[in-house]
Amino acid sequence: MRNLRNVLSVILVLALCLCCTACGGSKETPAVKSGVEDGVLTIAMECAYAPYNWTQYDDSNGAVPISGTDGEYANGYDVMIAKKLCEANGWELEVIRTDWDSLVPGVQSGIYDAVIAGQSMTAERMQQVDFAGPYFYASIVCLTRADSPYANAAGLKDLAGGRCTAQIATIWYDSMLPQIPDAAIQTAAETAPAMLMALETGAVDFVCTDMPTALGACAAYGDMVLLDFTGSEDNFDADEGEINIGVSLMKGNTVLKDAIDSVLGKMTADDFNTLMDQAIAVQPLNG
User: Fold this and answer.
1) Three-class SS state of 211
2) What pLDDT, in 10s, does the model give residues 114-127?
3) Which H or E element spans position 220?
4) Where do the H-state alpha helices sit in the chain?
5) Among 194, 163, 171, which Cα is nearest to 243's?
6) I want to staple 117 with a disulfide (CB 3.0 to 4.6 A). Which of 45, 76, 124, 284 is the partner?
7) CA-CA distance, 167 to 187, in Å (whole number)?
8) How far apart are the first and last CA of the chain?
9) What is the pTM of this model?
10) Which residue segments constitute the domains of the chain, with CATH numbers given?
11) What is the DSSP letter of 53?
12) 137 vs 246: CA distance, rounded Å
């Protein structure tokens, strides 16, 4: 009888252990897949935001095919950075073209692995996605035309009352333009090219953007003037996250974040600027 009781006790203990193990396992959260298990880094961008990214119709200057298109290629600073990431990690590169408002939802849902599209690392975006990087430091500036009464502006107060715009869903439009006294803020432009066209056609007096976009615009349009208030006490108030440009990833994708940061962390601001200069030099509208 004593031996029987001992056997029953052992069985009971084993059963309890198995139960506890099963219960504990059910609480584990599945790990987020990196997305590059297949050896391909799939990224998204507008392909319409020079010099960060653009569409061209041949593979010159290192352009890569745009997925799902026939004879269309993506190029620009974002593509150059993506190619460096792929080379260092042994991945192939796939580029998907989508509109600006679809970038964050797409990476959240796993349609693509990452967004490399000139996105600022803002606190609001960091609530939605994780960021690797930064892979560029982009100060905030304005653009106007050479014949504009604002062409000699030395600070924000000199832009007071002017008609202005910026690209939709950007810090330029949401956070920077409201800092200009009495600014006549017009409807946001759907894309960066549309923003520049509004300035070129006289629909607005000036636009707000970042330094690379402005430098690219000045290279493409000979009548545009860069207004940089850096060093002035009358400059835009922007925090670090608003000028740091990063690679957005699905929340919890630490494997891909670490792989990307291992490459970007070895690059300096000078490295980034040199690569950006190369992008500006080969952008399609550079004249």
Assistant:
1) helix
2) 999 999 999 999 99
3) helix 211-220
4) 2-26, 77-89, 103-109, 123-126, 171, 192-200, 211-220, 240-243, 254-264, 269-282
5) 171
6) 45
7) 9
8) 98
9) 0.84
10) 40-137+242-282 (3.40.190.10), 140-237 (3.40.190.10)
11) B
12) 9
